[in-house]
Specification:
Elements lengths: L1 E4 L11 E5 L7 H17 L3 E7 L2 H5 L11 H10 L4 E6 L2 H4 L3 H10 L4 E6 L13 H11 L2 E4 L16 H9 L3 H8 L3 E8 L4 H4 L5 E5 L9 E9 L2 E10 L10 E6 L11 E11 L7 H19 L1
Parallel strand pairs: 1-4, 2-3, 2-5, 3-4, 5-6
Antiparallel strand pairs: 7-8, 7-12, 8-11, 9-10, 9-12, 10-11
Helix pairs in contact: 5-6, 7-8
Length: about 300
């Protein structure tokens, strides 16, 4: 799969293509449906399928300080899109100037002049251009002038537990923030993942027989609510069953919020400086402070037992 950053990275001899545009944060099941339709249409036409996305998130430019928690960094989104059959991902730097392009100028500059769109595939609520003035209808109207067609794809909806709420990144962020990682996995179609570099912490876990990977998460990461979870620690492609702690560690008067993962039964790991991922499967309990160290140790042993049972 080709990856481009900015319009200038697109090959000069690039031909017609099928395009879909959006932030696609999380590449959840609704996104997967849209991208899948784009890939299917591209295969029908015998042309490449291209996803256009933005960096930073448009809200950070339009409303500074409003950057939403991110469900997946761009490299992870690209990996997931490649798995769906996408041929190229174009990341457009979202600047103040770019945000002021009219819908028509956006279509000409991106879809017509550089990507030579044959079909554009979008969800029903797609908006684009200055002040989000462009809609799917606008896109279709411009397509009649610039020789491309538009496919609008309805999003899946969750079941009774979600009240029929459509799959969305906003819904997923809320579920993650509430610690409802099982619900988030339902929307994503896989466990929610947090990534970062393993850094040195206070090393109390190692002293107590539970050495943890203290993950310095990437900026704006969507981190689950404070508590203990079952999941996996992913290191260089290997997924290890893990008990995961999120919070400030009130037992030791902690103030900094951290994500720490104990690879169950693995006391031999040296992960400092490595980029790792933590996948969240299930919530076990909330963050607690215990009267004694013995009480904490007993609860930690129980957490590990429960995590292992869930993962098995």
């Amino acid at each position: 799969m080709q990856r481009w950053r900015g319009l200038e990275d697109i090959p000069e001899d690039w031909g017609r293509s099928v395009v879909t545009i959006g932030s696609y944060d999380g590449v959840h099941r609704g996104h997967q449906l849209i991208i899948g339709r784009a890939v299917g249409r591209a295969r029908e036409l015998g042309v490449p399928a291209v996803v256009v996305t933005f960096d930073p998130h448009p809200s950070e430019v339009v409303r500074p300080g409003s950057h939403p928690p991110l469900l997946a960094p761009h490299h992870r989104r690209a990996e997931l899109m490649a798995g769906l059959g996408v041929d190229a991902v174009l990341v457009l730097p979202f600047t103040e100037g770019f945000s002021k392009l009219s819908p028509a100028d956006f279509v000409v500059k991106v879809l017509v002049d550089r990507l030579h769109a044959r079909t554009v595939v979008e969800g029903p609520n797609f908006r684009f251009g200055h002040r989000a003035a462009g809609t799917v209808e606008t896109l279709a109207e411009l397509g009649r002038t610039y020789d491309y067609d538009v496919m609008a794809v309805d999003l899946f909806e969750r079941g009774e537990a979600g009240g029929g709420e459509p799959f969305s990144s906003t819904l997923t962020r809320r579920l993650v923030a509430e610690g409802e990682v099982a619900g988030a996995a339902e929307v994503l179609g896989r466990p929610h993942r947090v990534e970062g570099i393993v850094v040195r912490g206070a090393q109390r876990g190692r002293e107590m027989g539970y050495p943890t990977a203290n993950v310095e998460t990437l900026p704006h990461t969507a981190i689950p609510a404070d508590g203990v979870y079952a999941g996996w620690l992913v290191v260089e492609g290997e997924s290890m069953p893990a008990a995961i702690s999120v919070g400030t560690n009130p037992q030791f008067e902690g103030t900094e919020r951290t994500v720490e993962a104990y690879a169950i039964g693995r006391v031999d790991l040296d992960l400092y400086g490595l980029h790792v991922a933590v996948d969240f499967l299930a919530y076990i309990r909330g963050q607690e402070r215990f009267d004694t160290l013995e009480g904490l140790l007993e609860r930690m042993a129980e957490d590990v037992r429960v995590a292992k049972e869930l993962l098995d």
